[in-house]
Amino acid sequence: MALKADDSGCDRKDLIREIYQAAADQEDDLTSDQKLLIERFVSYYAQLTKKTVDKVKKEVKMTFVASTITEHIHHEGEMIAEARFEERMKQAEARAEAQMKQAELRAEARAKRATIANLEDLFQEGLISAEVFENKAAPVREALLQLSRQASETPMA
């Protein structure tokens, strides 16, 4: 984005267009401070109307560039706030996911305990033998033990 030392005979609008085009092409590599510096230089050097400069920016698809230090600080603050918000949303999503997992495990464990209780009732009423009770209850107890292990390994919200 080097400038000519002698700009006499140059069309300032074309020169400004070239500066903004170069900035737009390098936008990912430029810091906000560099963009602000470009903007301040152009506003000092251009001696063009704001309308003309805005038209040139639009033509080269130049994204937001602060034209004052206040705008620059405000824009930086918005970017920081947005990043913080996104981080908090990720944390909230992770907490909600952990809470859902814990709730699922608790519900499944309640169902397993209810199954064991039903089998015990059937055995006590004499409707199933001790052998049938143990054959049916053993896998449910094992599943309940696995759920207990999963619950202890799942992070709490």
Descriptive report:
Helices cover 75% and strands 0% of the residues. It has 157 residues and is mostly helical. It folds into 2 domains: 12-67, no CATH class; 95-153. It is rod-shaped.
Content-based structural category: mainly alpha
Quick check: average pLDDT?
A: 82
Query: What is the helix tally?
Result: 5
**Quaternary structure state of the chains depicted:** single chain
Shape descriptor reads rod-shaped
Distance between the termini: 52 Å
What's the story with the biggest beta sheet?
A: none
* H/E element sequence: HHHHH
**Low-confidence spans: pLDDT under 50, at least 5 residues?**
none
**Percent helix:** over 70%
Share of residues in strands: under 5%
Key descriptive features of the protein:
single chain; 157 residues; 5 helices; 0% strand
